[in-house]
Amino acid sequence: MKNNILVALISLIMLMNSCNNDKEQDNQQIIYTFTMPKLIFNGVAPGPGNWKSETLDPQICVDSSNCLNLVWSSDENATIKFSRSIDFGSTWSIPQNLFSGWEQVLCVNSSTLFLTNVLEGSVPGTQLVFTKSEDNGLNWNDYKYIFKAKSEFFAHIPAIATDNQGTLYVSFCLHDHNQSDGHHEIYFSKSTDNGDSWSEPRNLSNNPLFHSDYPAINIDYQNNITLTYWQNVKDGARTFFIKSDDGGNNWSSPRNINNDYDNIVMGMCPIISDSTGKLYVVYSIEPNPGDVFITTSIDGGNSWINRKNISHSSGDSYMPKIAMDHQGVLHVVWYDNSQGIYDIYISHSSDGGATWTDPQNLSNSTESSFAPSIDIDSNGKIYIVWDEGDISNKHIYFVCSEN
User: Fold this and answer.
1) What SS3 state is found at 2?
2) Which pLDDT tens digit goes with each residue over 44-94?
3) Of 117, 116, 77, 80, nearest in space to 95 by CA
């Protein structure tokens, strides 16, 4: 009898240890290794002045063939350039000059490349234009206007996305300098004919009391449009969320996703969703030191939970970008000055954002690094580019994951 009890106790202990080991294994994060930073292009930043960017602002996008597409804006005249790699970033095509512009954003639907950017207006102000390429970037259509120049109106910071039916959506900030405070609002336009024509831009934020800026747009698996933007409020700045389930005809009321946690949210707050509709938003906050946070929603954006600090930095962490691979692993990049100058960092989560790997320094440079851009191919390989150096001697660096 005693022997039977002893055997049973030993079996129970072994089972409990096995369960604990399984739990620990489930919580373990994947460790990623990356190539050494590779200098792929040089340039001169378009700004400062005339609303032009002070970085090359490289944007990387992976197409359905796992080829890499890269756009950036360079030179004093703000020329948008394009290059493509068909060998996972080992080599790149000779840069192609597209046209004048800056604050370029790129997205892809199968093999068609869509590009929208800011352009100097014919009157004081800036306008928003769109172009596309259906032959892997060899040729680009003449650009179409999304927002035409109006005196003292400045289109700024566009975001673009496409759904699985081919409809294109663009959001941008419009600064009205006819008003004494240069008021900012978030606008939205869409195209149902592959970008040949665009709807009249519509004011989504529509708040005359506070500035709205830095829109980010995402299309979920049910083709719902989810959009975040920054808005200054009377006691700081917050991230607001809105959504549309009918192609942008009607929108929900703005919802503050920061609640009472974060007084000052800095810059863009990118949003993505997974195959179940779960939403993820990343953002950076102040006061100093600033950190990068993530928050999630499992009810379509009605409530936001599980706020997590990703960067845990002794310095300032800014402008995060987020991507998800085909296995649902989350990857967030940002720039941070905890080492004295700004470097590019990355962290990963394989459990839906519950836990995160320690931040990994990707750039490790003697020059400051800014404006990271991230995308992932169908095999889960991660690609990151960023801008490095001072305004008159800029470089674009590239890394990719090795495992």
Assistant:
1) helix
2) 777 655 445 567 899 999 999 999 999 998 876 788 999 999 999 999 999
3) 80
**pLDDT computed for residue 14 by the predictor:** 38
Model's pTM, two decimal places?
0.90
| C-alpha pair distances (Å), 261 with each of 242, 286, 293 | 20, 11, 11
Predicted pLDDT at 327: 93
**CA neighbor of 338 nearest in space, from 317, 356, 357, 358:** 317
The reported pLDDT for the residue numbered 16 is: 38
Provide the residue type at 381 as one letter: K
The C-alpha atoms of residue 186 and residue 179 are separated, in whole angstroms, by: 16
Cα–Cα distance for residue pair 92/106, rounded to 1 Å: 17
The whole-angstrom distance between residue 334's C-alpha and the CA centroid of its chain comes to 10
Query: How far apart (Å, rounded) are the C-alpha atoms in residues 136 and 139?
Result: 8
What's phi and psi for 249, nearest 5 deg? -75, -40
Nearest to 355 by CA among 123, 24, 8, 105: 24
Q: Is the dihedral of CA 109, 113, 117, 122 positive or negative?
A: negative
Length of the chain: 403
Q: How far apart are CA 94 and CA 105, in angstroms?
A: 20
Q: Which regions of the chain are under pLDDT 50?
A: 1-27, 50-51
Name the helix (H) or strand (E) containing 11: helix 2-27
| Structure tokens belonging to residue 334 | 């940002």
Tell me if 372 sits within 8 A of 386, measured CB to CB. Answer: yes
Radius of gyration of the CA atoms of the chain, in A: 22
Strand partners, 400: 383
Residue-level pLDDT at 99: 86
Amino acid identity for residue 382 in this structure: I
